[in-house]
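Worked example 4.2. Below are the chains of a multi-component assembly; read each line carefully before continuing.
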Amino acid sequence: MIKINKKLLAICLCSFALQLWALEKSTLSNGFDDEESPIPFDTIYNHFEYTPYYLVEKSQDIYYGLSGGGQGIGYYDLKNKTEPIGWPLTSSSPCNASNDDCVEPWWVGRWSEQEFLEPEIKKRLNDYEITLPYELSYGDEVADAIGCLEHTPLRYGDIDADSDSELVLFLKNTLVVFSPTQEKVVFSTLFNYPDYITWQTLIDAEMYLDDPDANTPQYASLYEFKKDRNAIIGYRGYSKLYVQDFDNNQNVDLVLWRKLYQSRLQGDSLKGFEKLSDSYLHYKKVDGAYQLQTGTAPETVQGWLTANNLSWQKGFPSKSECDGQEGQLIPEMHDALLNDPDVLK
Amino acid sequence: MPITYTKSKHDAVLTLAGVSGDQYNRKALLRSWKARETKSHWGHGFPQTGYRMTEGGGDELGSMSFNQIQYHYRYSKKPIRVHKEKALNYFDPEDNLKGFIVHTAANAPGNTANDYGHTGAFYKVFAQGTARSHNDSDLKAYRHCSGSGTCTAVSAIKTQEDEYEQLARAIAEYNLNPGDKSWPIILKNKKLADCKSCEYSIDVRNSADKFNLPYRTYIWKGGTYPANLTDENGNSDPKAGTDWCFAYGENEWMEPFDVKEPGQPTRKAKFEDYKKKAKRDKNLKVSCI
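Applying the procedure described above to all two chains together yields the following structure tokens:
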């Protein structure tokens, strides 16, 4: 007769249940804007002559707000009408005015050095002085929000089953987890890096380039075209998040699977992109914030995903929240033009 | 040279903006335009002298100022064709100004005449292009207001850009393509940091030390008054159920108010901030027309 350890079973079931849907829209409290529910915005304005862009309810008459700049969180107690408390989402530069030799790191304006970006992206940010600060999409950009996740940019719930709820934010192409308890960002990833436009776009813009040949990229960098009208090769990258107790220590781990692609050349027989890298990263909560576990080998992390039958399409985000496309795979992250069989399963 | 920005078009711009007089002729516009460029074209270096021309901005591909036409990504693989083919002295300020005009009016590459390797901004907007449609039902009207606060009467917006808006976009286009929308929709959708060429265009046309046209303000629908709106005495308000509007245009885009929010540095207001503010401040609501 097999004895079942009920406590272990409960942990296993809990862990299993955590994966995937811990971050899905349906499992979190979703924020709202002024048009959807004006009354708490009216109350805030009447007392403070200011309104945030989005609110999410913590409890009755207690709200968290996201600023219009997308760089700050406010805590609004509408029961006691106390002055709002503000917390910055962004980190500040470690450089100071007295140190001329200090080079500002790429993550200034974002989370911290705990965030991972591929060396190719960091080199591009550095070489061309491109920044990726936290900010809400604005104007024309709103329509480009991948999977329409940013259309509900503020959400609230316990994503890692530690009985302490977090704010989950979608700021342009970045997923941010903010802990009101810790009063700081505890995790962040650039889940979409859409640095590409067709090479023809440059030609249509009357950039006078050499005539395209076999070595000309099929896609150019969008960011450098917009910033400096330079013609360099295009990149696109994505990441998927998995929330589960992978190392069986009864605490939830975050696993991040990132992929970076580069444009194929016009002489290639294949259209689209080729993969530059897969990155497998393990984050563990230490003192309330997630820390990158550099000691966990990528092969180990990959093995966890394989052992748990967690494919690319089972990571978060995968499902579109766009009107009429709810529940369908987000097209860009699962595109056949990536020429990567992983993204098709 | 192709005909682009004619006197009749310029006169239409002035009429729309509510101004007239010699100080607003096309020559004055050109002087104002070059006044924007002059500060980076002349007078740099050491010792500082008003006679020194700025040449190059670090390399010969991304050159600035008078050398800017050598920037091959923007001005063709064969730059300076204008000066060669029109026999203009590249280093003579007057000739260089003529070169600027030829460049701005140049037609599309491939044409047998006046092909200087790129399509000039004025050719694109006034000869080749058509007025763009706004395609925004919230855009209702416009008026022009001077720095002293004197405003023209409010006029209903046309379906497509008028001459004032085409000039605004053409000057921006000379600097850098501001996008594929009409002028007011560009201002609605792009922040100052995302449209340097919009700032360039407004500065040339509207700044008091340049061409000094009164800024154009647009009137946008912000919302609808509640159907049960009452006045201070509790009587039914005639505005009940009607639309309310707010003002946001060139001056607001250039000089937005500061927004102080919990948790983040003070930032500059955007279109949405003007709308949100007007929603709860009756003094900022305006008649839709």
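Take a moment to check your reading of the output against the notes. The CA atoms of residues 82 and 116 of chain B lie 6 Å apart. Strands of chain B lie at 139-145, 155-156, 215-224, 243-249, 258-261, 264-268.
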